[in-house]
Write a structure and sequence with these properties.
By secondary structure, this protein is α+β, with helices and mostly antiparallel strands. Among the domains are: about 50 residues, no CATH class; about 190 residues, Biosynthetic peptidoglycan transglycosylase-like (Penicillin binding protein transpeptidase fold, Orthogonal Bundle), CATH 1.10.3810.10; about 60 residues, Trypsin Inhibitor V, Chain A (2-Layer Sandwich). About 35% of the residues lie in helices and about 15% in strands. The longest helix is centred in the N-terminal third of the chain and has 32 residues. It is elongated and about 145 Å long. The protein starts with a helix and ends in a 52-residue tail after the last strand. The C terminus is likely disordered.
């Protein structure tokens, strides 16, 4: 016997078996479904009929998982979140050639049959038995039903039941498909199938597949691209064009030949398409924040959404909504500002430095977060400086513990003082060292705080609010805080969104003992140019569901923290930092438009800050010492940005300030060139009183006068020469007319009497007594010669020393 004869016999036998099998299948299907069991008899027929009749006939459609899209403030996509990479599209947005290719290979008689295509099923069975190229056996509707059942499976048991290879499951799918066809049109069924089908490489639905493999929209698909995608749905793993391009091409060519066979395309077109390469242009759709244009802003958005009950009552429900809800979330980020911030941070701090550089930008009056940039990139490679820890945001939103802000907290004490009515002229003698004695200030439960001795690092002398802030004088602010007391300043700081723990209700509060992050500081400082309106930071502009409907999402809940005039006064004081005489101006931090700011350097140089702003944008700039694990460490001796830091270089204005300037000198071109509101002193209010003139009075009378004005009289130990009688008031410090506030001290200097006259030289001639016409105590001038005449009048009393 020849091999050819044996092969022929085998082929014939397969055809006979196939024919018998197909006949049996067709008979069963016709008898069991088309003819309500009329063809079945006996116990078997009754069993089959009862089984089919007991199956459900309707299926509740699954809400398919769709990817969530994150947009910037202009509508540009910056990130995706998904469990399945899918975005539904209407049928009219799918290229007609894609529809024809799919139907050609999966269900060519789709528009001619109902839920069940007996002819197609029989043909597929024969082809399979004969080893011919496979075509769709189940109808599109049947395949859709199977996909819906899989999509509805929430547990492993449900998934196993939806995919088990049993007669019962097949019959149930048929029943569902028949009911589905009665309630849905063919176009609707085809649209649903194209959106639910899995094409491989994580692409669910035709829109995701077109982008994944060819970087086009589904309405832009060409013939060869459509044939490739149509060939994938039967077995996405086996025909994966990125992993098995040769197999994928063979499958594509099968689709093309089938289209030619059905006269969907001409043989010539088919031959030309078969000769073409696959032409893949893969575009991976990132999932999550890594490798996005703003990874830590993206991370902040994700944490913010998962903390908001707007997306669900529980965190699990919110996670599911974010990953499967098909939301479109427009955020507040301005990518121009983000790039400027990224550049500034990257130029000043390297990822592997023992330091963290960060900038946060917030819009006053809205709380919109415009940019978040940090020096350590997102990722797992710690040796390259990568991290998943967000150093820019609060711990409650997945951030780090934060860093002490140093003297930037002085602005909160300043605002508290102005809020209480203290005038801008509030003046103190600021010595090199000042002691806040125990019992002079209290925390928020009314307890006295411990004694605090503070030193100046920026000079001594007499300062008002302007100069004391411009030069960041510690001993000035220690005394100002004594006037306001600690709790009001702590309370205001908390009202501005900064979580101050109870243990930080201490005398050094003005020097920033609380660990805080750049975003919270930026949002707090934004209250000043917003003229007293505090708006919590928010990254969200709008949220729309998969159907484009707006989802109610809470806006930033702005609240008034203090009067507008207080904000104006703070701005006027802090702009002095950027003007001549201030640390900002000295270090070249001023911009082409008006700006204000405050420096901050912590004890032991663990962190430096510059909080700078214009009327329309606040940017917090921070460089903090941190080892490779993120634990705080001193900046002293570290190499930052490629150069070792000298001790005198570690300062808010000299280190963090230039990073702020580098970002803001770019950003300012997109900001309105506006000025701060001038201070209306008539509306600022205040408790200012003038020191009265007390010369010549007794100490008791003078002290009582001061007490009546709520000023504190202090007797100086030394006396001064003065024409007022000995023991009476000679002068005061501050002097008469100085504007003080209740609680401030006035030092009283008593007179030691007139100074003794200078020695009189021996006269050449007789001297006469001075005349008394002047009415003063002056002595007369001597006349020439013996027995001279009357002398000139003496000088009058010049009054008390000022």
């Amino acid at each position: 016997m020849s091999a050819h004869w044996l092969a022929s016999v085998a082929t014939a036998l397969r055809r006979i078996v196939a024919l018998v099998a197909v006949s049996a299948l067709a008979g069963l299907l016709v008898a069991g479904l088309a003819l309500p069991f009329a063809g079945l008899t006996g116990i078997a027929a009754r069993g089959v009929a009862t089984g089919i009749e007991e199956l459900p006939t309707e299926i509740n459609e699954a809400t398919l998982p769709q990817r969530t899209k994150i947009l910037d403030s202009t509508g540009k996509t910056i990130a995706y979140f998904y469990e399945q990479n899918r975005v539904d599209v209407p049928l009219q947005e799918v290229a007609p050639v894609m529809r024809r290719a799919l139907l050609a290979i999966e269900d060519s008689r789709f528009y001619q049959h109902g839920a069940l295509d007996i002819q197609g099923t029989s043909r597929a069975l024969v082809n399979n038995l004969l080893g011919q190229p496979t075509q769709g056996g189940s109808s599109i509707t049947q395949q859709l039903i199977k996909q819906i059942l899989v999509a509805k499976a929430d547990t492993r048991q449900e998934y196993a039941a939806a995919t088990e290879q049993t007669v019962a499951r097949k019959l149930q799918e048929l029943q569902f498909a028949m009911a589905y066809e009665q309630n849905h049109g063919k176009r609707e069924i085809l649209e649903s199938y194209l959106n639910i089908a899995f094409f491989g490489d994580g692409a669910y639905g035709i829109s995701a597949a077109a982008r994944q493999f060819f970087s086009v929209r589904p309405d832009q698909l060409s013939l060869t691209q459509a044939a490739t995608l149509a060939g994938l749905v039967q077995n996405p793993s086996a025909y994966n064009p990125t992993l098995a391009p040769a197999t994928a091409r063979e499958r594509r060519d099968t689709v093309l030949r089938r289209m030619a066979e059905l006269k969907e395309i001409t043989p010539k077109v088919a031959r030309r398409a078969v000769a073409a390469p696959l032409g893949l242009r893969v575009t991976e759709t990132p999932n999550g924040c890594v490798n996005t244009v703003a990874p830590f802003f993206c991370d902040y958005v994700q944490a913010y959404l998962l903390n908001s009950e707007a997306l669900g009552k529980t965190r699990t429900a919110r996670e599911e909504q974010l990953l499967t809800g098909g939301l479109t979330i427009r955020t507040t980020i301005d990518l121009r500002m983000q790039r400027a911030a990224d550049t500034a941070v990257r130029e000043r701090v390297n990822p592997t430095d023992n330091a963290i550089g960060g900038i946060a930008m917030v819009e006053p009056g809205t709380g919109k977060v415009r940019a978040l940039a940090q020096s350590r990139p997102m990722g797992r490679d710690s040796k390259s400086g990568e991290t998943y820890l967000n150093y820019l945001v609060p711990e409650s939103l997945g951030g780090a513990a934060g860093f002490q802000p140093g003297s930037t907290f002085k602005s909160f004490v300043l605002a508290t003082a102005l809020k209480q009515g203290l005038p801008l002229s509030t003046t103190f003698d600021a010595p090199q060292t000042y002691v806040v004695e125990e019992g002079t200030v209290q925390n928020c439960d009314g307890s006295d705080v411990e004694r605090w001795e503070v030193d100046n690092s920026t000079g001594t002398g007499r300062f008002d609010m302007y100069l004391g802030t411009q030069q960041s004088v510690n001993t000035y602010y220690a005394q100002l805080e004594q006037l306001t007391n600690i709790c009001p300043a702590v309370t205001l700081t908390r009202d501005l969104g900064i979580a101050v723990p109870e243990q930080d209700e201490v005398a050094p509060f003005t020097l920033g003992p609380t660990d805080v992050n750049p975003l919270s500081m930026a949002a707090a400082y934004a209250t000043f140019p917003a003229r007293g309106m505090y708006c919590p930071a928010t990254p969200i502009l709008s949220v729309r569901d998969r159907d484009g409907r707006s989802t109610e999402f809470p806006a930033s809940d702005c609240e008034r923290a203090f009067r507008p005039t207080v904000g104006d006064a703070v701005n006027d004081v802090l702009r002095g930092v950027q003007e001549e005489g201030g640390f900002g101006a000295y270090n070249g931090l001023d911009l082409d438009q008006v700006s204000a700011g405050k420096t901050g350097t912590t004890t032991n140089n663990f962190a430096v800050w510059f909080m700078g702003y214009t009327p329309n944008l606040v940017a917090s700039s921070m460089i903090a010492g941190a080892n490779d694990l993120g634990s705080p460490t001193s900046l002293a001796g570290q190499t930052v940005g490629g150069r070792p830091l000298l001790f005198d270089e570690i300062g808010g204005s000299s280190l963090a300030g230039p990073m702020w300037k580098r970002a803001m000198e770019v950003v300012q071109q997109w900001l309105p060139d506006e000025d701060f509101r001038p201070v209306d002193l008539s509306k600022l209010g205040g408790k200012a009183v003038d020191v009265p003139f007390l010369g010549g009075q007794s100490f008791a009378v003078a002290a009582e006068q001061l007490r009546q004005l709520d000023l504190v009289p202090i007797l100086a130990l030394e006396r001064v020469p003065n024409l007022y009688p000995e023991g009476t008031v000679a002068t005061t410090e501050p002097g008469a007319g100085a504007a003080l506030v209740p609680g401030q001290q006035v030092t009283i200097y008593l007179s030691d009497g007139p100074a003794p006259p200078p020695p009189t030289p021996d006269p050449d001639g007789g001297g006469g007594n001075g005349g008394t016409d002047g009415g003063g105590p002056g002595t007369g001038g001597g006349g020439p010669g013996i027995g001279g005449g009357t002398g000139n009048t003496g000088g009058g009393d010049d009054g008390p020393i000022p």
